[in-house]
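Below sits the subject:
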Amino acid sequence: MSGYSEWQKGIANRNYHLFRKLLENDAVGRIICVDFLPFTFKRAIRNYWQNIFKGEKGEVIFRDLTTRVIRIPHSQTEVYVFSTIDSIFSSAMVIKKINKVLSKIFQLSNYPTTRLPRVIWSCFPMFVDYFSAKGGSASGGENLPHDLTVFDAVDNWIEHPSFIKQKEKLNKNYQIIAGKSDLIFTVSENLLGFFKNFGREKDVYWIANGVDVVHFMEKSTTKPEDLKNIPRPIIGYVGIIQQRLDIDLLEYLAEKNPEKSFVLIGPLWPVYFQKIRKPAIEIQRLKKYKNIYLLGQKNYLQTPDYIKNFDLAISPHRLNNFVKYTNSLKVLEYLACGQPVVSTPPSGVERFSHLVYIAQDYQDFNKKMEMALRENNEELKNQRISQMKNQDWSFKIEEMIKLIKEKLL
């Protein structure tokens, strides 16, 4: 679902964290990362420029007009990055190209005599032609050889504002995933019911997001330059500024708390300004407040420096059909930094109701902010950090690998 080059630029999502933990796992000998497969010409142009024309540094083992494959040096695991725009023309072209590249990789492999189980692991519901039916693909053409298929359901894309025009296709694809994937992992508990509605209950497991404990627990003495002149207390948010963010709530909080600074860290999601009504007005509503600061996207490596300089972290998400299938990654990162957190109640946050102040409405959110700031102390900070140790991504990947091994037996 992501691009490898995006990870290298500091964008960290569930896919990124799972990839990093797979690299460290002794059960994994080789990973072939397939970059986001574009299905619009606009995205194809972007992918071509970022991943094929420019691309990450590495040994190029295959290249043609529409595809580039590189080998990334790694001490333990073979890593290859497959980037193509062939998907804009045909899914069959992608599968054929991957098979061609696989043949070359096997010739170069450090495992010439070992038959490793082949697992197709996807979180991209727009592409399902790798599923086989007695040797054929879902579309009846060439298939990717594999021993197991795993689908990791990150949100419900049918409800995602970026894929409004793809709803019909996504419905069909989720039906194929539900019917043919050997294992399904879900990011939220509500997605278990989502797949049940497609007739799938067996081998579907809720494995919530984790947190990179070491990254966020390490002591930080750095105060970012763009925070130095912002008055305290600082109420901070880290995440993509898109439709899930409740602009009305932020506006309400800024008006009620003129003495507090609201700092938003994150990129402005293009669809937020293209798909909803009066897009320019939405962002101008935030910019008109002197106590709201839009600091833009920051590299994942910098994120702890910002969070640890907040006085309070917030997760002000809208309560809609999309959000109920999500699982907040940032709340875990806030807690791993020891920060008090006030959140609306999206899926999964109730697991940490003893650590997070969960607000039911705008007035309650404002009240909980005051309470969180007033009650915060070193004991609570240490409690938050301590309990996040059990949520490290290493435990998540161990659980996934265990289920994969059991299914391969």
The two ends are 28 Å apart (CA to CA). Confidence is low (pLDDT under 50) at residues 133-140, 271-280. The longest strand covers residues 78-84.
